[in-house]
Design brief:
Chain A is mainly alpha-helical. In chain A, 72% of the residues lie in helices and 0% in strands. With 326 residues, chain B is an alpha/beta fold. The chains are: A mainly alpha (289), B alpha/beta (326).
Chain lengths: 289, 326
């Protein structure tokens, strides 16, 4: 292990250092950052328009005018992928964050204090998990109106039991550890015990779940779009770009209509997974840099 | 001399599963324990595995809530404090845990581990805190270059030194040592014990020292209590206990200490049978099922702890007869 100098080396600084030694994770972070910036700023810089129809080019392949070709109604594919990225990334990342923010405190509450909290939170999680989530999303989306915000919030809120149960399970085992007793013995406040002792030792499975959840949310949004309850055409998302390409003739003869969107979706999901791996390894003190 | 800690009638009962039509049973891990610890002394508690030594230690510090009884520390009944008052009290009473592999947070560096108590109680600046951390590390013989390492990078003895530094950094008056060397190699045991003895005289600490190892207790302690199935059966000054043993159980324990000399023939009293189940301890004196001296009244009445000679307490009906008859 590398030798550090001076008064440094708190746990969080070490985590940062270990993370930046994880090449794949750093690459993934870089890629995602570039992607997010591109999705936000490219439309302004290049004045892309995903809706304007080029009557001279219906379903044409890549050309000088349309870098990635056009779809069947003559809309620029590149512009649609960039705009679709806005929707997919927002839905994926924000909804996973919402699940995390709702699920983690509830799971910690149930796992650390047990008693009535355990009963209330875990039974609530059971109730949430026993709903057929797709149907619930469909109903809520039609009641609350179809918008990106609604979809993000609904997918996010419905995802909390997964996080709550994971952190609950690991909290149950960590709270019995002797170092937690030792934290009590030196007079640590309950909040300090949870923040400095329970959370760092119980969060590894949650990070993995977060990356899965993000990928899953992107896919859920795609399914919703396909069912006509997600992002409404003519607006684009990676999901609905792929779903509109679901015919043999498009798949076989017009690869520009689905290959770029598919590749970007796969790379994004992979990068989120690598990022998760990197964070998990960085949190583990036993991993050498 | 004044008593720093007075434990009276301390009880910790764990409820066992209730059976239908039967009264709820309890495991009496600590049952009616009474003793005191003087300022500056080392009070030892010995007993075999499962007799309630560790539970007693943690109940005194209220890491486990007592079922009954009182623990008076510096004139204050610890058992009656509110959780917040108890939290503030902890800077005066510390604990060194048995297993240094389990009692240090694996996600904190040595520096953070030792500094943690200061972060809670001290209002000093960050530099002053670091100075204290360094002097504590020096005190326990840890090189300050180790401060950015994690517990898993250390050996058991070094980890226990980290634990000791963490326990002592707030200058507590009273330290409970819950078998601090039993998880360590024999070769480092002596080092850690000597360190603890040295620190006691330097910092005028009071120790409650728990062990199952009689030779360790003899080396370190001033007074010793012997526990059997949740109760104290004998308390005496160290030499008095070893020379004028009164309780039959203590006799068995002492006669079983190995003697490092192959020429010496030993006449160890060997106990028969196992430790009885704590769910269902024997009636009367808990030890009567295995006691070579047991008589009729032993199975009927529990012998109260009584002072047979000054400072020597014993819980046995036949203590006088054992003393005279030998």
């Amino acid at each position: 292990m590398k030798k550090e100098k001076g008064i440094r080396g708190s746990y969080l600084q070490d985590v940062k250092e270990r993370f930046f030694h994880h090449k794949l994770a750093v690459f993934a972070l870089f890629f995602l950052a570039v992607e997010i910036l591109a999705v936000i700023f490219l439309p302004m810089i290049l004045s892309l328009d995903p809706y304007s129809i080029d009557v001279m080019a219906f379903g044409r392949g890549p050309s000088d005018k349309h870098l990635m070709g056009t779809d069947d109604v003559g809309r620029d594919m590149f512009a649609r992928i960039v705009y679709g990225g806005r929707v997919s990334l927002t839905v994926g990342i924000i909804s996973a964050i919402i699940s995390l923010i709702v699920g983690i405190p509830l799971g910690l509450l149930a796992g650390y204090f047990r008693g009535k909290w355990e009963i209330i939170v875990m039974r609530l999680a059971d109730i949430f998990m026993s709903f057929p989530s797709m149907i619930l999303i469909l109903v809520l989306a039609s009641v609350l109106g179809q918008s990106i915000v609604t979809i993000t919030v609904v997918i996010g809120v419905l995802g909390w039991p997964e996080f709550a149960r994971l952190i609950y399970a690991s909290t149950l085992s960590v709270r019995e550890k002797e170092y937690v007793e030792s934290a009590k013995a030196i007079g640590t406040k309950t909040r300090g015990i949870i923040v400095r002792y329970i959370v760092p030792n119980a969060s590894a499975p949650v990070i993995i779940a977060f990356t899965f959840r993000t990928a899953q949310a992107i896919i859920t949004e795609s399914s919703l779009s396909f069912l006509g309850l997600g992002v409404q055409p003519p607006a684009a998302s990676w999901g609905n770009i792929l779903y509109y390409a679901q015919s043999i003739s498009v798949l076989a003869n017009k690869p520009w209509m689905w290959v770029p969107a598919g590749i970007i979706l796969i790379i994004t999901v992979l990068c989120i997974n690598f990022l998760g791996d990197g964070i998990r390894d960085a949190l583990d003190t036993k991993m050498s840099v | 001399m004044e008593h720093l800690v007075e434990v009276s009638n301390l009880k910790k009962y764990y409820p066992a599963r209730k059976k239908l039509f039967k009264e709820r049973q309890y495991v009496k891990a600590v049952d009616d324990v009474t003793f005191y610890i003087d300022k500056g002394e080392t009070f030892g508690i010995v007993g075999e595995s499962g007799c309630g030594k560790s539970t007693l230690c943690k109940t005194i510090l209220r890491l486990i809530e007592p079922t009954g009884g009182s623990v008076v520390f510096n004139g204050q009944d610890v058992a009656k404090l509110t959780p917040e008052e108890m939290r503030l009290m902890r800077r005066h009473m510390q604990i060194i845990f048995q297993d240094p592999y389990a009692s240090l947070n694996p996600r904190m560096t040595v520096r953070e581990l030792i500094k943690a108590p200061l972060d809670i109680f001290s209002e000093a600046s960050e530099e002053e805190k670091m100075e204290k951390v360094f002097s504590a590390m020096e005190l326990v013989g840890l090189n300050r270059e180790f401060m950015n390492k994690y517990p898993h990078e250390f050996s058991g003895g070094q980890r226990q030194r980290i634990m000791i530094a963490r326990a002592l950094i707030l200058d507590p008056e009273f330290v409970c040592c819950d078998e601090p060397v039993s998880a360590l190699d024999v070769s480092v045991r002596a080092q850690v014990l000597n360190l603890m003895k040295d620190l006691q005289s330097r910092l005028s600490l009071t120790y409650l020292f728990i062990s199952h190892d009689l030779s360790v207790v003899r080396y370190l302690c001033d007074r010793i209590a012997v526990m059997y199935l949740g109760r104290i059966v004998e308390i005496a000054e160290k030499d008095e206990l070893y020379d004028n043993t009164l309780h039959p159980y203590t006799k068995c324990l002492i006669s079983s200490i190995p003697i490092p000399d192959p020429e010496v023939k030993r006449h160890a009293m060997v106990l028969e049978g196992d430790v009885p189940s704590p769910y269902n301890p024997p009636s009367g004196c808990h030890f009567h099922t295995r006691c070579p001296y047991a008589g009729k009244q032993c199975s009927e009445k529990y012998p109260e702890l009584r002072e047979l000679s000054p400072g020597h307490f014993v819980a046995c009906h036949y203590a006088e007869r054992i003393r005279e008859g030998k």
